[in-house]
Backbone:
């Protein structure tokens, strides 16, 4: 079987840039199926998705993806490092993918791979925590401090197959992706994860970086949709129809009462959790975020921690390897690929009720919570909304 192209996405919501990404992968890898690993009803920003996961999955299948897998919430509600690690681990575990693709500001693997190697060296340095603390005491935010330390390790890498000078030019004077390159920064985490899984994965993943086009971002679309502004030109027609036909969430503040209640029932485990717990009686979720954020903990980190507490995800669950693969949907013609995945995967593959086990309980709790606010499918329907969309042969 021809290996598939795997990639991570949130499609929150699906916009013109996603269509460009899928169309370009089709052109670059003709004949290869496209397998997406997508966050469920809660996304990495630490917010409920704008529309539910099945509506987003169906839109992506209609517009170019072949198979949609669900990224477990313990990874989706984690830092970029564990979001990337979980995504790559799920793709690797399918046993059918030999390429991992991602969007990038530079569109070049070499400087991202060099930065990933430098990050791995930095993380192996016992002096890293003290270097980070020193920079943070100087008023530098954690992410920028981490990048500065890794940039020093990039400079120390031997010249070889990767040219330091050309890599530095790619990042506008820095050897590590700057703050204005969020996709390159996430790409570093993807490359680190690929290095890691290559140690035990039977099928090696080839990284592929695709330069992003000039499109309105998902944030632009969400902002417009939530404010009532016009966004029709930012998204394909199918996505516009999906957003218009669904109950739109997208705001953490909708869950304020549930979050406050969960915080009063949980035991703080770590500095961030204690800061959040101390702010539990702020006026709403946004007030808790404002009170608990710091130079070392971004607003996104606080929002993710709040949702983990609400759903019941432990702080170290993101470090666990995937113990199942859940198929949210596949298009007509991709049945053979799903069957091949079921035979080759290193963990059970869940399609509908087939393969269901208690390991999915966290996802069911997350869906219960989400659908309380949308009036969408109930828990018993969670297993019957997988979609197969007619769109030609695989």
Residues:
């Amino acid at each position: 079987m021809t290996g598939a192209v795997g990639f991570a996405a949130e499609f929150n919501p699906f916009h013109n840039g996603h269509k460009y990404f899928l169309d370009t992968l089709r052109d670059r890898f003709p004949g290869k199926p496209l397998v997406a690993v997508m966050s469920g009803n809660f996304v990495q920003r630490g917010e409920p998705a704008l529309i539910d996961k099945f509506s987003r999955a169906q839109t992506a299948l209609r517009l170019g993806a072949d198979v949609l897998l669900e990224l477990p919430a313990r990874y989706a509600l984690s830092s970029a490092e564990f979001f990337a690690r979980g995504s790559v681990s799920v793709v690797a575990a399918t046993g059918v993918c030999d390429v991992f693709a991602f969007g990038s500001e530079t569109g070049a693997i070499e400087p991202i791979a060099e930065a990933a190697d430098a990050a791995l060296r930095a993380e192996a340095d016992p002096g890293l925590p003290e270097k980070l603390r020193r920079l943070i005491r100087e008023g530098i935010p954690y992410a920028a401090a981490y990048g500065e330390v890794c940039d020093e390790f990039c400079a120390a890498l031997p010249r070889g197959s990767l040219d330091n000078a050309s890599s530095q030019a790619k990042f506008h004077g820095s050897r590590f992706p700057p703050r204005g390159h969020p996709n390159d920064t996430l790409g570093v985490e993807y490359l680190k994860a690929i290095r890691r899984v290559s140690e035990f994965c039977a099928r090696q993943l080839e990284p592929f970086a695709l330069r992003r086009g000039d499109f309105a971002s998902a944030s632009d679309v969400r902002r417009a949709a939530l404010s009532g502004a016009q966004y029709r030109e930012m998204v394909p027609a199918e996505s516009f129809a999906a957003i218009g036909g669904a109950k739109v969430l997208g705001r953490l503040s909708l869950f304020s009462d549930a979050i406050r209640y969960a915080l009063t029932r949980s035991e703080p485990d770590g500095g961030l959790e204690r800061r959040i717990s101390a702010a539990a009686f702020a006026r709403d979720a946004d007030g808790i975020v404002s009170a608990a954020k710091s130079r070392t903990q971004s607003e996104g980190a606080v929002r993710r921690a709040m949702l983990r507490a609400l759903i019941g995800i432990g702080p170290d669950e993101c470090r666990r390897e995937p113990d199942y693969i859940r198929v949210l949907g596949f298009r007509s013609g991709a049945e053979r690929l799903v069957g091949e995945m079921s035979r080759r995967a290193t963990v059970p593959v869940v399609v509908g009720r087939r393969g269901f086990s208690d390991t999915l309980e966290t996802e069911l709790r997350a869906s219960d919570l989400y659908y309380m606010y949308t009036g969408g499918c109930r828990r018993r329907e969670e297993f019957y909304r997988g979609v197969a969309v007619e769109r030609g042969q695989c």
User: Anything to note?
Assistant: The chain is about 45% helix and 10% strand. The first helix runs from residue 16 to 28. The chain has three domains: 4-105+188-249+323-381, 109-180, 252-317.
